[in-house]
Design a protein that fits this description.
The protein has 350 residues and is α/β, with parallel strands linked by helices. The protein is 43% helix and 11% strand. The chain has a 4-stranded mixed beta sheet. It has a 4-stranded mixed beta sheet with strand order 7-6-5-8, with helices on both faces.
Length: 350
Amino acid sequence: MQTLPSLAEMERARARRDASYDGIFFIAVRTTGIFCRPSCPARSPLPENIEYFPSAREAVFAGYRPCKRCRPLETNGKPPEWIQNLLRTVESNPTARYSDAYLRSIDIEPSRARRFFMKNYGMTFQAYCRGRRLGRSFEQIRRGDDLDDVALGHGYESHSGFREAFAKTFGTTPGKTGDAGCVVTSWIESPFGPLLAAAKPEGICLLEFTDRRRLEHQFMRLRKYFKCAIVPGENKHIEQLRKELSEYFEGTRTSFTLKLIFPGSPFEEKVWNELLKIPYGATTSYEAIAKKLGSPKSSRAVGRANGFNRISIVIPCHRVINKNGALGGYGGGLWRKKLLLSLEQNRKLP
């Protein structure tokens, strides 16, 4: 479960209206029933009337409504500027070691970086950097680069140290990577909020909004099915996904050409394959899918399989609604489901 910063840290951020904490926690006001971002320009409430939440979802479930000034449910899909700068630094030199002392030298509290990366990537900042180094070395070894060059080029003073770190992450030694393939993950911006994508060498295996509560469970299922490490990185499938999603949100793409890999139970896989058949701009019901599968009484099971879909948007679970026309459920939030359907029906963003 995502933990909040310390009370003192949140109070300081609230007093400064510090936008770098937006998304790290939310402020709810008991007397008004409204919740806000830490950077909200509205007049500060009395401390005794404030309640803090680690996510907008939890604030909504507690009965609070979003502020109309700071619009905490809306996002441009970008991480805070301080995180963007940190990511650019790591990408510019992924072999470097970024210690807590280094973070403090650029005015970033290590605990803040750790919380952000845990919330949005499911790992600490140090684990992200370690995975980025080893992920790069994994690709070099697969290309046939010399092991000495790879080990020393990624900051390891000995083969044994490199082998130990490599095996701990990938579950295999560097010399046996020919038959292995890790899952790489990357952040993708979207008009409806940031997405976390994951891919194997064979294709895309995950696409989820970063604030979805089931995200950690989905990663557990990926580890179960693929039995390999999950590390930050890029591959050709994620690059293609980023391009096709951009075209989708612009209203110029109505179908995806991506290679997908989505292992599940036999029933889940049948449901997910039926979802892929729903045309752009159309909707169907859980009951209709159950009938197509030859099991008309399994609409609830269809709903559960729909909820466990790991590749949002591309496998369009948002196109499934109740037979009475109501939207039904959606793991990414009903507001997103409504906007996605509006985008597809009007060929433009709402």
